[in-house]
Amino acid sequence: MTTYVGRLIKALYVTSDPSLSDQETYPLRTDSQGRLMTTATGGSSDTLLGALTETAPSTDTASSGLNGRLQRIAQRLTSALTALAATPQAVAATNRSTTIATGGTAQALAGGTPVNGWSVSNPDALAESLWVSDTGTAAANAAGSIEIVPGFSYETPPGRRPAGAVSVVAATTGHKFTASTW
Question: Does the pTM exceed 0.90?
């Protein structure tokens, strides 16, 4: 462990001393004021690394000794790992399944923009596509509209919130579709 820590310290702090070889270790100790010190084996000079009681800097760019900088790095790593480990909250879906009221005319999937996402499936036995959009009014072959062929579905990707209200259109009145918003 001492060799590993010593080499780490050499890599981070003492790289400007070309007289030290990679084979030298840096045993850790404290001086009479409680400051962390290291002595290169075979060398005669001590290198000050910072007080053991030094606090972490308040920002990533603030001045500090090695101890404070390492504490700041540990804080940032802890924050990042905590954020990654957070379990997403489950959100209840609302069933929006229905039929096309008037063929060729877009209709709203729900009353307003879904909060977190939506999905639409085209299970209809008719051999026609269903078109959906959350960026404007859905229309066949139109920019911003997504085609859902029979037997397929579309669901907003994880992390993507809907841009606006979802509209749906198909050519035939009574075309069934399955949908949910959450």
Answer: no
